[in-house]
Amino acid sequence: MQDLHRVTGRHILLAVRDGDEAVLVERLSARDAAAVKYRVGGRLPLIGTGIGIALLAHAPGRIRKEVLACADDAACVRRLLATVRTDGVCAVAVPNPPRSGPTAMSTVAAPILNRRGDSLGALPLVAPDEGGPRTAAVTALRRASLAISRAAGL
User: Fold this and answer.
1) How many helices and strands in the chain, by DSSP H and E?
2) What is the C-alpha separation between 26 and 51, in angstroms, rounded?
3) What is the pLDDT at residue 107?
4) Measured CA distances, 22 to 3, 52, 71, 111, 153 (Å)
5) Gap between the Cα atoms of 64 and 58, Å rounded
6) What is the pLDDT of residues 67-116, one digit of tens each?
7) Residue 21: strand pairing partners
8) DSSP code string of 71-129
9) CA-to-CA dists, residue 138 to 28, 92, 102, 110, 132, angstroms
10) From residue 6, how far is each of 110, 121, 141 by CA, in Å?
């Protein structure tokens, strides 16, 4: 995580799934990066966030089914889940709420998997939305998630 943080200069998070939510367990913040409200111990939904989609893509089928049943646009969520399973990353732009400032944020997240392909967690990179994720950042994120997966050795 520290290497990814140094290379990208962005906020790097580590999240795990707890039931139908994502829980942030670590955050490395960039000093000059845009402010974010994510905090260690915070909970996020599995739908509507790159973090959640990366976790949901490799969650047990029962969990995916339950979460998709509550989705406003299940077809869109299914496409995002398929992207994570094929490309290893998910990019989601988060619209800014009114009065929160001019910078919309985007999250690019990659799953951390065990040898069986089950989700251990997700590694998100959070940055201002600049019209889509930069290829170098996505590549660095994917490599970091694969390295953590290998290091876990489970």
Assistant:
1) 5, 6
2) 13
3) 80
4) 23, 6, 16, 12, 22
5) 9
6) 999 888 989 999 999 999 999 998 877 655 444 455 566 788 999 998 88
7) 18, 45
8) -TTHHHHHHHHHHHHHHS-EEEEEPPPTTS-S--EEEEEEEEE-TTS-EEEEEEEEEE-
9) 17, 12, 24, 9, 10
10) 18, 21, 12
Tokens standing for residue 50: 């790159």
Exposure class string for 88-108: b at 16+ Cβ within 10 A, else e:
bbbbbeeeeeeeeeeeebbbb
Distance CA 61, CA 11 (A): 30
pTM of the predicted structure, to 2 decimals: 0.84
pLDDT tens-place string over residues 19-55: 889 999 988 887 766 666 677 888 988 888 888 999 9
- In the chain, the amino acid numbered 97 is P
- Tell me the one-letter amino acid at 59: A
